[in-house]
Amino acid sequence: MPKGVGRQAVPVAVRSDLRPQPVRWLDIIAPPSFSALVSARSWCRCGYERTARGRSGVLALIEAHTAHPESCPLHHAEGSKAA
Question: Contact 74/82 with Cβ under 8 angstroms?
Fold first, then answer.
């Protein structure tokens, strides 16, 4: 075997900062009782934060949360779709 050729140890490091990090969240609270008030909270690391109560408000918040990446500065900075 020629000199300098052979097996070498390759350093391997597990870095937790390379995993995709969530950018935005949607929390929906729907109690089991049909008459109970449904509520939701949507927020993003860019500073976007909204809350809603009641079925129609929560449905509108879900639509706004889904549309938020189109105008989110963090989404465009990363170049990929956020969570």
Answer: yes
